[in-house]
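Worked problem 6 (solution included).
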Amino acid sequence: MSARTPVSPVHVAAALVAVAALGWTLWHGVDDADTALAFGLLVAAGELTRRTGPGSEREPAPLGAAGALAYALLAQVGGRPTVHGVPQVVAVAVAGALAGAAPHVARGRGPTADHMARRVLTVTFAAACFQPLCGSGRAASWAVHGPSYTVVLLLLLGLTALCDAVLAAAMTHSRTRRQSPGSRSRTSRGVPIGPLLGDELRALAGIGSAVCATGAVMALGVAVAGLWALPVFCVPLLLTQLSLRRHALVRATYRQTITSLARATEIAGYTPQGHALRVAALSRAVGRELGLSEPVLTVLEYAALMHDIGQLSLVDPVPGGATAPLAPGEQRRIALLGGAVVRQTGVDAKVAVIVERQADPYREQPLTARIVRAVNAYEDLAGENEEVRGAGGPLGALERLRLGTGHDYQPEVVESLARVLSRGSVT
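Solution. The predicted structure is:
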């Protein structure tokens, strides 16, 4: 855990559960050591092959997650009942994850505290729900077999996925609850947890569903065929992980291309250095504060990066690159020129629409265009250019935006911007 990572109650709970499980297992010994070793090696292999590049924020080690989930849902091995309990499941998952993460930690790219906490608590939840019901031969005594066993397994998978999504949203929400810069006692309310949970639930349709399905199939396969089933069922998830890695690289390249296009105005001297990146980061944070979904946030970020590209068509540069002080007609002309340029680049048409409509009266704009307009105006009015900057610095810029909420800026967007700035960091 880095020094800047805030310690949340979730991290503390995960650490206590992990220590208790390891201590219990060391004290009482390992039951069915061969099975425990096989699943521990599977979890370690999953961590060794974890994604460390772009696009790895959701589930960087899907094979390790599937292996830990399969061990938590394991009731039989080759037809004989298992004898391990919940503490051993957690201990094997933790030990395997630590062993597999060691090489990454040595290179300075180890798993985050959030990732490890989610893994520990999610596996604990799955094992605590399944093992007392179906583990150690209890399925027969509860008459859980055949179709009813499948229903129970699917229900537990759904609850486990929901638990993981809630944990992920809670930890992201906790990270945004930073102290306000001007006060040691006042804490910002952070990003609303509802939109964060929605993003996590939507993400389950991707790698999350693959992890759950593979974990369940592994558990069922090992129950019938024994431990030899593990390597067979690892292959589909490994191929899925490889495909996701390539898709993430394509998306990263796409974003880099857009960023390079956005920097054209800076290189040509039309806008200040770093202006587009600042507007994009702040717009994304405001969009998340307002509850926009992840796909919409991505489109918003791209539009914010390219919001000033229309200035390349101007003969005379705008002073300081600031469009906020210009007349409404000139702002709309630049915006339409920018939208035309964006359409010629082959970027998503939704991005071009936002760029074109960023200078319209806010009641006629989509929410994404309202965000870009307000954030760009704030950056222009609070920037370092003395020709544009008003009195009062950032606070003065916010006050000027509030004065313009009757026509130019949506009040909710301006207040969300103020809350994001009060946290002192862009998330």
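Discussion: The longest strand covers residues 76-77.
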